[in-house]
Amino acid sequence: MSYVATYEKPGIEVVSALQKMREGILFAFIAWIFLGAGIMAAFFGALTAFAGGAGGAWVRVLAGLGVGIVLLIVGAIIALIGFYAKFIPGTSDLARGNPEFSTASSLIKIGYVWGLILVIIGAILTLVLVGIFIVLIGFVLLIIGYIGMIILCFKLNDAYQNTLYLVAGILFIIGIFFPIVSVVAWILIYVALGDTIRKLRTPPTQAQSLIQV
């Protein structure tokens, strides 16, 4: 059985789409560092405050909380840029290059974009009963986006025959019950996308040697 990655539109569009997706994941990795540092700084600042302090101690408490909040805001901004300005547009471009990815792209876009919007709106309105209902709808949409990610991984594996995509998809399924596993899935997708991009950029004369019979 032979395998060659082919698409209905020029390959360069697909490479650009995959590159956007990979850059989006990289932004997410950077965001996680800021968010982690921010949580730690805010936690220790709050811990010091609960432990009690006087004089200069309160200055350190407020400084810790302030730094934590700033890091959290920066991390959130980087995450939003990576996911909503890079990864999701990348999946949309990929779907335009190959209709096989249309379902996954639509689920990811609807789930993560509208899901997050509803969760934020619902959180603001939590004092009103309708706010809780809106948050629940938002979480349902986020789950739909999560399912889109699982489908995307399996479709990428079908298109490029890279086992890392398959493993990532399985880990995302496990991540429904153990969320920490999803982090490993994102790392695998990042590595697999780099390998796929490299292969698609291989000149045609050399690509023939990559064909498996």
Describe the fold and architecture.
- This protein is mainly α.
- The chain folds into 2 domains: 8-97; 99-203.
- It is built from 7 helices and no strands.
- Helix 1 (11-51) runs antiparallel to helix 2 (56-97), helix 1 packs antiparallel against helix 6 (181-200) and helix 5 packs antiparallel against helix 6 (181-200).
Main sheet properties? none
Number of helices: 7
- The domain tally reads 2
Query: Per the principal axes of the C-alpha atoms, what is the gross shape?
Result: globular
Structural class: mainly alpha
Low-confidence stretches: 1-10, 206-213
Order of secondary-structure elements: HHHHHHH
Q: What is the percent of helical residues?
A: over 70%
Question: Would you report the number of β strands?
Answer: 0
Return Rg in Å.
21 Å
Which properties best describe this structure?
213 residues, mainly alpha, 2 domains, disordered C terminus
Short description:
The chain has 213 residues and is mostly helical. The chain has helices spanning 11-51, 56-97, 102-124, 129-160, 163-175, 181-200, 204-207.
